[in-house]
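During the reporting period, our protein records have gained a structure token line. A sample record is set out beneath this paragraph:
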Amino acid sequence: MKSYGQFCPVAKASEVVAERWTPLVLRELFSGSVRFNDLRRGVPLISPTLLSRRLKELEQAGVVECSRGPDRRSSEYRLTEAGLELWPVIEALGVWGKRWTQARIEQRDLDAGVLMWGLRGSLRCERLPRRRTVLKFELAGTSSGKRLWWLVAEHGEVELCLLDPGFEVDLHVRTHIRTLTAVVLGDLGCDQVVRSGDVALEGAPGLVRAFSGLFVPSPLAKIERRV
């Protein structure tokens, strides 16, 4: 780690937390990701080598601990007591970012993979039918390779697929990536965009009616922008 050469606690904490990509890695750990590949899906632009380095640095700082997964082959990363105490810091960064910087979202910031990975983690499985349920998303405004996504929910687990999993689709959602991003951020209401036709729903009537409540709202959705 690079040192600021100061005893100041702000400087010492910044040596751990303020490295490039580290706040986003911490965000994913707080979101429940524990496996290396899941962390990469939440921070797709970081290289595997750099992610390994950041995790090792967080380990050395006592923020993250690494252990063997249930299969005894893969590693899992979890926050220590010191790491868990960083939640107010990460939350405050999100609140400040939503309040003061969200108006500056540009097309290059609209990442379909990050958006859909977040939706995967917020899907309320308890509100779905008690069987395999497939939600297909068709996103305009993104590259052809990231236009179609599937969420497959079964037995309380949710899998995100970029290739057609081959199951019958229960709900087909068509919208623009910017619209769905605005809904996730709380800038647009889900019922509002469905009524306007900016989000088109096709499928099982029960799922169509329940769509606005199928996902846990972002904790930052209620933060109002000041810019």
Notes: The radius of gyration is 19 Å. DSSP finds ten helices and seven strands in the chain. The chain has two domains: 9-100, 107-213.
